[in-house]
Write a structure and sequence with these properties.
Helix content is about 20%, strand content about 0%. The protein has three helices and no strands.
Length: about 110
């Protein structure tokens, strides 16, 4: 399901869309090969990696180290709440079991 709606010149049938949208794929760079966001031939589309989806949607390389630019790798995911609480407590981070409330109301506009 496509959850992004485009309006104005980015709308699908806009008259000037071809003048502001570049069609086609950009030339591949050094990291594009390993982050290519395509499923393998025999693998269903739901098997894309998290990093490949982030790269495809946001053009963001989430596996690039912010300090040295090297490659990061995911070594584990934590599914158990008790383990997550223990790790967060050890790191001195708060664990919020409650979901955040609704956003505050917008301030009244000044005429």
């Amino acid at each position: 399901m496509n959850l992004v709606l485009y309006h104005g010149v980015l709308a699908p049938r806009a008259r000037w869309r071809s003048q502001v949208v570049r069609y086609g794929r950009p030339a591949p760079d050094g990291t594009a090969g390993e982050l290519e966001a395509r499923p393998r031939a025999a693998v269903p589309t739901h098997a894309w990696t998290w990093a490949a989806l982030m790269h495809r949607v946001f053009d963001l390389d989430v596996l690039a180290c912010p300090r040295c630019g090297g490659r990061l790798r995911v070594i584990a995911t934590i599914q158990d709440r008790a383990v997550a609480r223990t790790i967060l407590a050890h790191l001195g981070r708060a664990f919020s079991p409650e979901r955040p409330g609704p956003a505050p109301p917008a301030p009244a506009s000044i005429p």
